[in-house]
Every structure is written in structure tokens, then in C-alpha cells.
Amino acid sequence: MPTSPGSPDLPAAPHDDAPLSPPGLAGLHDEVSEATPLFNGFVVAIGASAGGLEALEKLFAALPVDTGAAFVVIQHLSPDHKSMMDNLLARYTAMPVCVAGHDMPLAPNAVFLIPPAKSMRIAGDRLLLSPKPDHGLSLPIDVFFSSMAEQCADRGIAVVLSGTGSDGSRGIPAVNAAGGFVFVQEPSTAKFDGMPRSAVGTGLADVVAPAAELAQRLTTHLRAPRHASLRLPGSFTPPGVAEPLEGILELLLADSGIDFHDYKPTTVLRRIERRMQVQRTPTLQDYRERLAESPDEKSALRRELLIPVTRFFRDADVFEHLAEQVIAPLVQRDSGAEPIRVWVACCATGEEAYSIAILFAEAFQRQGRLRPVKIFATDVEQQYLDIAGAGHYPDTIGAEVSGERLQRWFLERDGGWTVRPEVRQMVIFARHNIVADPPFTRMDLATCRNALIYLQPAAQERAMRRLQYALAPGGHLLLGPSESLGVLHRDFATLSGRGKVYRLLRHDRLAQHFDGASRHETASKRHVLRRRAQEVAPPSPLSWVVQGERLLQQSYLPPSLLVGPSRELLHVYGAASELLQIGEGQMSLDVLKLLPRELSWAAGLLLQAVAADGRLESSAPVMLGEGDRARRVRLVARRMPAAGNPVDQGAAACTLLSVEPLDLPTPLETQTAELDEEQRKRVELLERELDLTHESLQATIEELETANEELQASNEELMASNEELQSTNEELQSVNEELYTVNSEYQEKVDVLNSVNADLENVAKATATPTLFVDEQLRLLRFTPELMQLFKVREGDRGRSLEDFANLLDYPELFGDLRRTLAERVVTEREVRSRDGQWWLARIQPYAARAPGSTKAVMSFVNVTSLKDSQRLQSVIDSLAEHLAVLDAQGTILLVNDAWRRFAAANGDPQLRHSGPGSNYLRVCASAALDDPAARRAHDGVSAVLAGRQPTFTMQYPCDSAGRRLWFLMYAAPVAHPGGGAVISHIDITAWADSLDAAPGADGGDA
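Now predict its structure.
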């Protein structure tokens, strides 16, 4: 028999493309009213891609159904394929599974699936759908993670399972910053480790484990009680929290030099609570002890507290406003060779610094001019600076950076994007604490976005004063959307437009004092500082001697430089600052790069000579400056061997390089040297050769420029081709990922169908019923082996028309009934006879309306020959005048004839409740035996026949019926059947008894 539509092994398919509502969620989308409470439980967002079906099955198979959380599954699905994920996942969890619809509310203990060709977000407790972008990189997991972090805060949980690429890794920092948890499948257990490995690479994964273990850890987290003792009422810190919290902050200060006393206590405790849940420590004191023992946990907590949430061109409108109102005027301003200076404070992993660098590069392109730009990007966490310095980011930045900017300012390497050298060289990354360290100076632009909001008001003010002090007159300041100037609002003017961009009006004198008093210090450090202050002795006479020598050096001694063995500048004596020059580019202490060009060549020769023989060396007179400022000097180099070993010429020693002034010669003292004829000809020859060489060099340069232009054109063509190939490769990778997901679903469906097919075959074998399946053309699709009893078919005949085969049925309407059933979709039943005398119930049924494909029908034949025989037997006994009943071995009535039914109806039992099939004849006789001796005799006689103690039993008895007295002859005989039983007949002999009564001396009795 075919499996019924409601079979649990084959879930019913939907009738259309509308999302399914699972049991318990039906009507939820339409029936939510204002009185319905909003869902405020945990939201578990599960991101999976290629190979994710297996991980999802393991995860949900191990998850209980009563966690109270709402589970949202986000996959990379093909827009052209109807997903079967709802049916597949429903086999592994008892929770209702449904495809999400637009504006559908979340519900506890339920699973929601992203539909194909859609991007999904969360707003409040509802799921919002939007069309998937036709072009560009689609990152549905990052999109949902980010919206969940914004809407659910610490109720959001991100889970990353198997998949290619890095989708999810850009949304994880947002989830972490909001206080949510991040669970990642162990990359080595994933079919495709791209997404898990990228998620682990963020350094923000709280749990990394195989899928089944993730379910256990997730369940523990969902059911774990929250640490209510860490919830601060206002700014008050309970005594039980203050002491261990102080110990934790002291450990972090000693380990990293960062004082988290400046951070808001609520933020600090919320992040500590997250780490307590990850480490499974019940109390704050236990966590402090764990922290003291684990350097890795200190690093993890420090990164948690620093909250590195950033991305390229975050708040695109703000950056557009910055480019128009600040960067463009800075590029247009003519300031000679003076560089534009920018300070990006709290830069995290560098995306914002590179975004500003790209804006400057684009402004230079538009203006057709170039000026040096120095962007100082600082942060307190060295690990973030290392990432920023590498300038390499995952491919998910394609969702933040336009395709044009990606191709212009990035290079595709190692599955990600690397900042081009012309952008990278603008940015200088350095470790700096904006709250405690001295600020930079002379900055044209300073930015600090979304970092001050985590600081306490006093620390915010200190940071703001440092930013103010760093700005040059008229400089600009950019803050985040949640930050403000505070007490410095009178010193800045707000630029009109989008974003919080300010222009400095005046400096605050208080901002010039940056001592260490504002920094929090541990109790031990403060004690050491007080002790050192008491131990400071008054200055000794030797210090006055040193100051006197320094004054004499500045007044009388020539400017001198102490140069190390590697030509590095170690010390400066006298007024040598006017001789030293600091050029552009990377800073160097090489003395030859610091001296003017007129002196650097002579200094190089002298250093070589002194290093070779150790003797005093001096240079020829050198002219410095021009016009009235011209002066004549000479360089003198003296070797300074290592202390205690003045004669060892091979020891590494320093060199003292002095610049001695000389008197300028008067014009009369100038001697003119005349050249003879031979020297003059020689000079002319050298000049001609120099001109020829110059012309040849100029021609070579022009040829090289032409070749370079051709190579550049070829390079641009290759770059364009490469960009097209990269775009095609991204599309192919996305299609391949979607096809893999589809293939996984199909494979799972094939396994289900194979199981169902095996069940069908075994059911057919167990019932041994001739069955055949045909299509609308009456072609034979499949049949059971028992069909060969009625049709002359073989296994190889599938696909042929059923009309081609002979059959043994007396059924001329067979093919007409088949066509009518297929056309009208009605069920047809007939009783037909085969040529061997067997009777069959032929049933023709069309396929269910929801079955895909063309119309088909199934025809089955049930052998009803025994039923026909029973019907014939019933007709025979119904034709007898005697009241006839058939009993089983226990005396239960199995069969009665029509005469028995009529008599029962006439004597108060029309429904045959006491004398019909199913009632026990012996029990009825036993009940009547109390008042009727004839009933006792009947009971004993029938019992003897059933037990085999008596071959037959006959009895004559009277019966009152309808006011008349009737006489019956009862006859009981055994049934010759292995199951036993007996046949009882009651013959109406009233007429015969009446005739005997009329005769003289008649007497009645038992026969």
C-alpha cells in the first residue's frame, strides 16, 4: 500500500511558496496585538554555509526543546531554488521549524529559517526581510549579527558553523561589544573551515568546539542564572563587589599599563560577567584568582574591555561630509612642503585610519596635486596595532567599501584585501593612551569616534583636553554620534551638515598641563612614590660643576656631535641645532642624513678615515649658506676609544665630530688660477663628451619613458582583465556555495526518499497485494510481483502502456475507468472476476493533489473470494425457515440467519444486543435458567456438544411470544472445523404440537 499523506516519514510539502507556520506558531504573525508581550528572551543566530547542514543537524539534535530561546538560522541559499531546510531540520528537533516571513514575531523554543533571495534583520522582536542585492558581495550572516547586536544587546548569541569565506566575522565584534556571546565550530571538525577560522581569527570567540559540544555549552549558557550581584544600581558599588573588582583592575594595570578605573563601572562589570560565564566561575573572587593565574585570560579580558568595534567608512554620510568640509580645503590650501597632520585616536584595527587616508588620496586625485600627509593612528592595544600595521582584511570588507574603491586602493591577496602601499605609507601606527599619555601637536584634523562613551566623565574630559591641545589653530575635530564636547563646547564651532565635526576656535590653557596626577595608581605605587619623594637629597656641588661645564660648552666650544660606530647620533655638544636638518619620510639618526649636504660628504670621508687609522682628521674649508649668512667652516674628527683601553685600535669606538668656524677670505686675498692651453683644450673636450653623454642619456630616458607608458597601458589592461576575473571568481564562488547547500539538501532528501521507498516495498511485500502505478498515458511505472497473477508483465516492461498486456480479468471497463480516474481525479472501485473463478476488489486512486509532476494513479487488487463465499453462505442460511445461529468454541454467537433476526425483533431485541453476533449464547441461557428449567437443559446440552462430550443435542420446549404459546425443537450439532464451535437451530413445531394436543391421550416431552 502506498504511504498515506500524513506519514511521519515523508513530511507533507507546502501547496505554495508561502512560509510555513509551525505548530504553536500558526497565526502568530497575524494575531499579535498590543496586549501580547514582546519576546525578550535570548536570540540565537546561527550562521552556516557550505557543509553547514551536517553541523546544523548535530547542533539541533543535541539541543533541548525548552531553553526558552528563539533560534534563527541564516544560510547562503540559492535564489532560484526552493529550500527544503524546514523539512530536513524538523527531523532532528521537536521544536517547530518555519521559514521566516516579513514582520514575523519571534517566539521561544522555535526555529526560524531565512528564505532564499532575502536578507534578514531583527527589529524589536520581529524579523524583517528585504531583497538580496543583485550585485556585489552578499553577507546575510554579518547583516543579521549586526542588527541583533543593536536590538538585543547581551541577549544576542552568535553561532558560526561550517562554511567558506568569512561571512560572520565582521558582525562578531558588534555582538561582542553589545555584551553578547560568540560560539564557533571547531575549524578542524567543519567540512569547510573558512567561516569558523575567520571567526576564530577575530579573537572574540567565547567558545570554540565541535557542533555537538557547542549545543551543550549553549544550553548551559541559556539556562545559567545571571550574576545579579554584578548589576550596579547607579554608580554605587556593593562591598562584596568592590574589593575583588579592585583586585581585577590592579592585575590589568600591572599587566598592560592600562587603568580601567577610567572606564564606566557598569561596562567593566558587564564584560567581566561575560568572561565569568565563559570560564564558569561562580563568584567575582573566584574569577580574580583565575585571572591572576592565567596570562591568556588577562589578554582576553583586556580585549573585552577595549571593545574594538570599527569598520571602513563607518557612517558613510559622516565620511562624505568630512571629505567635503575638511579634507578638500586642507588639500587645496597652499602650505608649501609642510605635511598635513592627522591624529586618529583609538584606531583599533585601523579601518578608520585607512578610510581617512583613502579620502585624502581621492582628494589629491581630484585636485591634481600632491602634498605629504602624516596620519598618526594610535591605540593602547598592541595586538590591534599589529593587525592594523599589516593592512590585510577579510573579503567581507566588500560590504563596507565600494567596488571602485576596492579595486583602486586595495590588492587582493590570500583570500582577502590588502591596503595599497600609497595608502599604507600615509599612516603611522603607534601605541598611545589618550587618557594618560601626552598628546600630539600641530594636528590639522583629530578623530576619536565611539571610544569616549565607555569612559567616566573625568576621563572623558582629560581625553577631550588632549585632543584640543593636539589641534593646530583652526584645526578640526571629529567625534562619534554618541559623544559630545562637554565643558569644551565654547572652544569649538560646529560645522553644519552630517556628523559631529567641529572647528577649533581657541586653545584652553588648562589643556597644556599633562602631568601624571590624573592617572590612577595602585596603592603600592603611590607608597613607592611617597617614599622616593622623602629620600630625595639636596643637589650636590658636582651638579653645579656639570651645569658650568655645559654653559662653557655652549659659549666657547665649537658645535660637536658624538657619533657611534654605526654613524648614529649619540649626543650633541654646543649650539649644533642650526646645523642639523630633519628631512621627510621615516625618522633616522644617521648623522650623514641629519647634516647639510655641504657637510655630509666631508663627514662621511672623515668618519671612514678615523675608523681606519684612529688619527685626528680634518676637512678642507666648506662654505655654508649664501649671501650675508655665508660662513666658512671645517670638520674635525677625533676618535674616542672605549674607556679603560685607549690603545686598542680595534675596539668599537665613538667619533667626536666638531664644526670649527673659519674666517671668510677677502676679495683681495682670493687667488685666481689661470689655465694653460693644454688644460683648456682638455676641459673643452670633456665638456663636449659630457654634452654627448647628456644627449645620449636624454634619448635613453625618452625611450624608457615611451616603453614605460606602453607597459603602463598594458598593465592597466591586465588590471582591468584581472578585475573582471576577480568579479567572475567571486560570483562563481557564491554560486558554488549555494549549489553545495542545495546539493546537501537534495542528498538529505534522497536519503529520506530511499527510506520511504524501502518502506513502500516492504509494505507491498507484507500485504502481497497486486498493485500497479501508471501515468496519464497509462504507461506502467512500477508494480508489485503479485501483479503477475493477473497481468502478463515482467520487470523489463516498465514504461510500456498497460494496454499492451493481456490480463486474466473479466473487466472490459478497466482502461476506461483508469482514464476517468486520471481525468476527474476520483476514486473508482469495482468487484471483478478472474478467469480462474477468483473475485477481486479493484480500486483505482489518483495521486494526491500536492504531488509534483504529471497526474498519476495507483491501482490495487484485493482478493475477496472468501468474502464472496461468506456472502453466499449467508444467503443460503437466510433462506432457511429455522432460526439458525453459529457459535464458536466458547459459545459466542458468530453468525445468525434472517429467521433468527426476525424472531429476536418480534420478542423485544430488535438490535440483537442479547441474541445477536458477539453475545454469548451460554451466558444468556445461564441467566434464564433461574426461572426456566428449559433454559438450564439448553445450557447443559450445548455445553456438552461444544466440549465434545455429546455428539448432538435435541430438545423440545415451549415459548411464549406475542401472547401466544409456541413450541420449538432445538437441535445443536458440532462444527467440523479446527477452531471448534456448534450450529444451533430452532424449528417451530407449534402446529405439530397443537395437533398432538387435539388427539385423545396426547402427551409432550423431550425428543
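The chain has a mean pLDDT of 79.
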